[in-house]
Amino acid sequence: MQLADTGDVVSPTGIFGAQPNPTVWVPLVTGGLALLLVLSGSPWRLARNVVTIVHEAGHALVAVLAGRRLQGIQLHSDTSGVTVSRGRPSGPGMVLTSLAGYPAPAVLGLGFAGLLAANRITVLLAVAALLLLGVLVMVRNAYGVLSVVLTAAGLAVLALIAGPQVQAWFVYLITWFLLFGGIRPVCELQRKRRRGAARDSDADQLARLTGVPAALWLLILVVIAVTCLVVGGTWLLEPALQS
């Protein structure tokens, strides 16, 4: 999975070609920056829109795969979101759809980490573009459209104008952000539930659908997110660990 470091510049070979290995500082610095961003105040509230987009995309994708009829997605300025699908109000399809949202950022981050470990930066950018296009088609409110379009515009600028080194820094940063950002929303949900709020959350819906307590579902969500972080982080840090 590693390219030999000969000191030469390796040209990408199409969208599925491998890019050169980044320097060891790229995963280390971007990991630290992503962690600071997730632990921050106002910057996190702005960046959390990306997590919400992925969260709702997770609901939407699994709803379609489970045979439900997707009605639309709404993204709100308070970084909340709603995905509406039609089908049986109970059963495995509804359970999987309800479960898919919170793990989606960490799972996507894990997938991105696998692509970066294989030096497939161009493929990663293409996957991100397809994800945003799919969400944009299904968004049903003005703020949601604006949020997705601005995110897509930033991605387009990166893909069309930025050089390979800048792209590497950005994709490592967004991958770390998804991995770390998959944990904080679950913790925030638990704090809200402790205050008696968010009683119609995904975890509470899962509890009503399955009879399993919401607290146990929250634990499952945390375990999934932490596992993705550990595995994905190991892949991202591989160049540094081998140096």
From TrEMBL:
Pfam families, per database record: Peptidase_M50B
The keyword Transmembrane is assigned to this record: yes
Listed transmembrane segments: 22-39, 95-115, 121-139, 146-163, 169-187, 215-237
InterPro entries, per database record: Peptidase_M50B-like
Keywords associated with the record: Membrane, Transmembrane, Transmembrane helix
Record flagged with keyword Amino-acid biosynthesis: no
Name assigned to this protein: M50 family metallopeptidase
Gene source species: Amycolatopsis acidiphila
